[in-house]
Write a structure and sequence with these properties.
This protein is α/β, with parallel strands linked by helices and 192 residues long. Helix content is 39%, strand content 9%. It contains 9 helices and 6 strands. Strands 1-6-5-2 form a 4-stranded mixed beta sheet. Strand 5 and strand 6 form a beta hairpin. The longest helix has 24 residues. It is globular, with a radius of gyration of 17 Å.
Length: 192
């Protein structure tokens, strides 16, 4: 299986004394397993992840589908996926994009991340707008993830408990995993 690297990512800093090469995998439907026990994971010293192992569903919490209301750009969203899809749809129809924000009172806004993802084709982007979105989407994702983890202390603690392990997102059967360097960078910033 070939690994992809998120092109919008930044290298994470190493911590002296930490064994290089620890890898943790996550996705929205991850099994609730201790660090190092997930598929494709490697952890040199599992005892370093004792705090993380004590948190139920820590892997799912790292996902963009985890429900944790946060504010970004004057709007409150339930998930990172809500904010992401709203930003894309706003390129074509800002009014329609409002439906993803909690203050709209819509069923979509109060749904989970999967409900938001299902609306990703609510509008179609022409070639110019698609090019514009491709230039913005990585920044939007990074800002939404930062808002989620910086506005929720328990989630911040989970992210910090991943130490400087590489964070990999499984994207589904038959799809290669993606290293989420942006999440590693957010972790580094929040740990300062």
């Amino acid at each position: 299986m070939v690994a992809r690297h998120a092109e919008w990512s930044y290298p994470s800093r190493s911590v002296p004394g930490m064994t290089e090469g620890d890898r943790l995998y996550f996705f929205s439907g991850s099994a609730d397993l201790p660090p190092g026990r997930g598929v494709h994971e490697r952890v040199a010293d599992a005892s370093r992840y004792t705090v993380l192992a004590g948190v139920r569903h820590w892997r799912r919490m790292l996902s963009k589908f985890w429900v944790a209301d946060f504010t970004l750009g004057g709007h409150t969203y339930r998930t990172v996926e809500h904010a992401f899809q709203a930003a894309k749809i706003a390129i074509v129809d800002p009014g329609l994009a409002e439906r993803f924000a909690l203050n709209s009172g819509t069923e979509l806004a109060s749904g989970d991340g999967l409900a938001a993802r299902k609306q990703r084709k609510l509008v179609l982007l022409d070639t110019a707008k698609l090019r514009r979105w491709d230039q913005r989407k990585h920044v939007v994702m990074r800002e939404a993830m930062h808002a989620k983890f910086s506005q929720h202390e328990p989630l911040r603690q989970v992210l910090l408990a991943t130490l400087p392990a590489e964070l990999w997102h499984g994207t589904g059967r038959g799809q290669p995993p993606t290293r989420i360097r942006d999440l590693e960078t957010i972790r580094d910033r929040l740990g300062r």
